[in-house]
Amino acid sequence: MAEVKVKVQPPDADPVEIENRIIELCHQFPHGITDQVIQNEMPHIEAQQRAVAINRLLSMGQLDLLRSNTGLLYRIKESQNAGKMKGSDNQEKLVYQIIEDAGNKGIWSRDIRYKSNLPLTEINKILKNLESKKLIKAASKKKVYMLYNLQPDRSVTGGAWYSDQDFESEFVEVLNQQCFKFLQTKAETARESKQNPMIQRNSSFASSHEVWKYICELGISKVELSMEDIETILNTLIYDGKVEMTIIAAKEGTVGSVDGHMKLYRAVNPIIPPTGLVRAPCGLCPVFDDCHEGGEISPSNCIYMTEWLEF
Amino acid sequence: RHRIRTILSNPLFCFSEDGGGEDLAKSGKGNRERLLSTMTQAEIKLCSLLLQEHFGEIVEKIGVHLIRTGSQPLRVIAHDTGTSLDQVKKALCVLIQHNLVIYQVHKRGVVEYEAQCSRVLRMLRYPRYIYTAKTLYSDTGELIVEELLLNGKMAMSAVVKKVADRLTETMEDGKTMDYAEVSNTFVRLADTHFVQRCPLVPATENSDPGPPPPAPTLVINEKDMYLVPKLSLIGKGKRRRSSDEDATGEPKAKRPKHTTDNKEPIPDDGIYWQANLDRFHQHFRDQGIVSAVANRMDQVISKWVGQWLSGIFTYLQMWPLAYSQSQHSRVNSEFQFTFQTQTSSEIVRTMLRMSEITTSSSAPFTQPLSSNEIFRSLPVGYNISKQVLDQYLTLLADDPLEFVGKSGDSGGGMYVINLHKALGSLATATLESVVQERFGSRCARIFRLVLQKKHLEQKQVEDFAMIPAKEAKDMLYKMLSENFISLQEIPKTPDHAPSRTFYLYTVNILSAARMLLHRCYKPFCLSCLNRTVCISCLLSPQSVANLIERRQFETKENKRLLEKSQRVEAIIASMQATGAEEAQLQEIEEMITAPERQQLETLKRNVNKLDACEIQVDETIFLLESYIESTMKRQ
Topology of domain B422-507, per CATH? Predict the structure, then answer.
């Protein structure tokens, strides 16, 4: 700790004076002061008086009580929050403090319990109280708590594809279709342009940035989507066999380039039509493995075959 | 559908009476213990059905026995099947004639016969071979290949005569087919390697004092394989008059050739020809590659246009692969307008055509071709500039498909076709197609994902595929249970505890392809059985060996109906020949009642449907087999 200037105080110990002195000290050392510092500052004050003053300040919400390696620390509390906590008891303030410290990431109720050493029932009561006062909120699974006015971090909610821990299947599907339509149209225009083959091919590609821009402009997403998000959607189109990707080297600073590379996507046709086997009943038969000549299910008495012939 | 009649033509080999009778028991047992081929029950059943359909009961019995037991000597076969020696000989005769059974001389002069199961299954593909010959060399080519397939092996003179006769039947009154024209087509088939000479007994230069070997070893020189003998075949096809038919209605060809009417010796005695199935397979492979390139690079990305183009494209595939210029220009002028939009695939087709004879069918790449050479070999009248060609070649080489590769810069750029890669891609696409149709597009997404990423954990699959956990798990297990996907365990700790083990999903194309291939044969069994029940009575007087209980009534009905319809047709034909009146013909036709006519229509329709289905399933079989073969050769 920094050197403390020792001022010699008059012997009269007015409680208010003591409190003000402590406040001043706290302002001097915004990181917090120990009991020792106060003692040094006002050596003539008895421990009892000191304790009373500190307690009063704490209950008024002007001081924060913290624990450090060396002992207890007293810290000045920001004035804006001091008003909020009026009417809350110490325990609530403690819990609030813990949640505040968790910041953007929020904190599990179990962790709050560990940090505050309060029993579970108390915690739940306090959390309910705080929630009703709209000072905190439950993000995602309702077990992670954070301050009300903060935006939850992506990793907690599961990213753009989750809302309240539910995977947004439909949303992903819609994006998938829209991206494909965009690429499909681009490829068609390129082919119909009847330019020389090189130009035709190059203009049938779209960079991930282009697709991202198109989707953003469409405005179908209420959540903000990043280029990486669009790339994960485009990847699903690759796994659908509808789109192919190539990576080209791009100058640093080119729009849409990342680390000197750019990803280009293009709509493509499958190389074979649905294969012959699937046009026979056996190709799609659900009981194929049970089918033996002479068994209950056999090629000779196959009902699928009969239906197929009558079709 | 081409029906195959049982024919006993000149046996080419003499059978040896088994020497070393004391070895019989030993060698017989050894064969039985020998590992059976990996043929599944479905495949064996299919072989049985095919042999039955084409050659009858006895050949089927012997053939299936050999497939099941491996190679055996003559006497053991007779003993084990309870068939007379004479009948076994005749059956083996037929099987060897059709390349379905081979023989080998073992030590101490024991000759053993072995069935070629995969070759038996090739009989399923006969329609495709014949159709290909038709598209390349029109009706003449079609009939030549058909005769060779139906008879196994034939002399050229015999083929020419037979085909000329058959073609003459179909022509207008007074017109006949000249032998010379048929010969020409035969020569072209030989030049392009679609037919080849059979191995022969080698000419014995040094007169060996010892006894002749129990069975001859047949050889053929590489350079002689496609050499057409200098024959002057002069004549015209003859129409078959009704008096030529036997009383029983059996065709003339049933009699062995050496007792035909004309006792002249055939000029090319001893030189026999057969269809070269490998060459046809090469053609199918090339077709597959070209159509894949067309689908990926030439077609507009929209469904209906794609279908229209692929319709035209199928027609385009009838482009003759022969080198004669006249043929080229004829086809070119008809289809030039579509060529311009199919450039990528046309270039690939040209490259494949240039490599036909120079690259062996099992090579992973074609020989490198220079851009200049390719430019010169483009079809006559196909006008794209050299620069445009180079652009397309660059695009093909750069494409993620990787079907075309650049191997050098001389001659304007050296290019190869990656045959093995192409077959792999086609096999993969086949697997994906089956997964898609059977399990749905979400499952197909997961399949392609695992394929591309090689190894993935459950969670990774969910995240990459963007499919909810429950659904993803369900789909993975479904594919796992059907062996499209497999699971690899990688333990983190020596105790292999499940909670500390990585479970990775992976796709092994080779084993998945094998699994799917085995599946392909069941539809054939199904359709063979159905068809056998439908029309076996029409074409062979033998009754079907295994009549299925449920179908017994229907079969009897069908049989009666078909026989009736046959009789009516025969009556009408003879009445027409003797100049009957319209009214009389009408009366006869009415012998078949309306519901019966309906039934016949349904029968005909079902048979056609089954035929078409078989051809489609065979496409899948071909792609999978080619890939497996190509992969096994590399290992």
Answer: Arc Repressor Mutant, subunit A (1.10.10)
